[in-house]
């Protein structure tokens, strides 16, 4: 029995690690996109794999904040600003070393500026989250929100923000739905080929239906899918993005279905509807043998 319990725990741990790796890998396209963007707008060179490391002392974050603030002032003076951006002095110690007091001070000043211009707490992170690189996901969320704001003041946005604008236009003027007849087959686009290829990687039945180019129904949920930088297949999820592979993995991790049975009789003789839910998941209970 002990051996069986140990095997189950090992399997559970292995799957948890698989999910963790998938979640971590899903951040790579975002880091790549933002590394390219900040490299362009600040005229620096940031390798995608070192993106969080490059921001960790807070210097580039403060420089990005200063750039956005300066561009906002320029637009306001020229009468081009859609909305006025609150101004705040951004103190920054440019020679701050990693994990130092000055690095923490830089990041704290950056976060205070973010709050001053109106960023919600849901778009922010704790100082240690960047300085100690504990919270890369929320750092990316924050920088993307700043990129959207930067676009209002003439700063060219990163790739995913451009795709968001494309989707917004499509939502206002939807593309015609796909229609396939026996006598006429629609040639698949590169995006559709990639979507269908990734769909085959899940080990449970999941219906993926193409509604129109870049718009799909996945397991009953309508989503927009785009290709980033010619190689990353991204899904628009809520106010952000996820890789299609990670999105499908999350579908794989938990799948719930409702089962209805005939009514049963209670002790007082009344009929009570009998229903339950079946949760299909790879996760297992902590003490399960």
Please state how the strands of the largest beta sheet are arranged side by side. Answer: 1-2-3-4-5
Q: Could you give the count of β-strands?
A: 7
What would the average pLDDT be, to the nearest integer? 83
Q: What pattern of helices and strands is seen along the backbone?
A: HHHHHHHHHEEEEEHEE
* Main β-sheet description: 5 strands, antiparallel
Proportion of strand residues = 15-25%
Structural class: alpha+beta
Low-confidence stretches: 277-289
Shape: globular
Task: Write a concise keyword list for the protein shown above.
alpha+beta, disordered C terminus, 17% strand, 289 residues, single chain, 10 helices
Question: Mind sketching the topology for me?
Answer:
Blueprint: H1 2-25, H2 28-42, H3 51-55, H4 59-77, H5 101-116, H6 127-131, H7 136-151, H8 159-172, H9 190-199, E1 208-212, E2 215-218, E3 221-228, E4 232-237, E5 240-243, H10 244-253, E6 254-265, E7 271-281
Antiparallel strand pairs: 1-2, 2-3, 3-4, 4-5, 6-7
Brief synopsis:
By secondary structure, the protein is of the alpha+beta class. The chain has helices at 2-25, 28-42, 51-55, 59-77, 101-116, 127-131, 136-151, 159-172, 190-199, 244-253; strands at residues 208-212, 215-218, 221-228, 232-237, 240-243, 254-265, 271-281.
Protein model, in words:
The structure is a single chain. Helices cover 46% and strands 17% of the residues. It is an alpha+beta fold and 289 residues long. The strands form two sheets. Strands 1-2-3-4-5 form a five-stranded antiparallel β-sheet. The chain is globular, with a radius of gyration of 24 Å.
